[in-house]
Design a protein that fits this description.
Elements (H helix, E strand, L loop, with lengths): L1 E4 L12 E3 L2 H8 L5 E3 L2 H32 L3 E6 L6 E6 L1 H10 L9 E2 L4 E3 L1 E8 L5 E10 L2
Parallel strand pairs: 4-9
Antiparallel strand pairs: 1-2, 1-3, 5-7, 6-8, 8-9
């Protein structure tokens, strides 16, 4: 099924692109979430009319994401976790814990935008990527310490 992407979706397509997707994916995920439109001639005309508005909103989102990224630059957050005798963590550090630690530091970040790349399972400092926008990525440092 051919669809017009209304927003960037990782591993699917970028805004304004015509892509082929499976019908179930389009019906059950892309269409209900407003991420795509079916590629009919009428929808193509509607998209062309709305393209300017969409681009203005996209630029505003990119500008606010860039502002947040500059405020996050160089931020280091400490998270205390329980450890075993061999200095390994019981479990791992989650994106929700990172988001909560950032909230305490005065930075509001959605936990869904935090990329832990396989998880943090050891003590020490770890770089963490925060994908604020499709074009803007911030990097912070998480310092995992043993809980007292």
């Amino acid at each position: 099924m051919r669809v017009i992407m209304m927003q960037d979706v990782s591993h699917t397509g970028t805004r304004g692109e015509l892509v082929n997707v499976k019908p179930g994916y389009a019906r059950n995920y892309l269409f209900p979430n407003g991420l795509a439109l079916e590629a009919t001639p009428g929808n193509m005309r509607v998209f062309e009319q709305q393209k300017k508005k969409i681009e203005i909103v996209h630029e505003q989102e990119r500008a606010s994401a860039t502002e947040i990224a500059t405020s996050l630059e160089g931020v280091a957050v400490e998270i205390a976790k329980r450890v075993g005798e061999s200095e390994t963590l019981y479990g791992s550090v989650t994106a929700a814990e990172v988001a909560e630690a950032l909230e305490h530091a005065g930075h509001h970040v959605d936990r869904k935008s935090i990329d832990l790349e396989g998880g943090i399972k050891t003590l020490g400092e770890h770089p963490v990527r925060i994908e604020l926008h499709s074009d803007v990525v911030a990097e912070i440092t998480i310092n995992v310490v043993a809980e007292e």
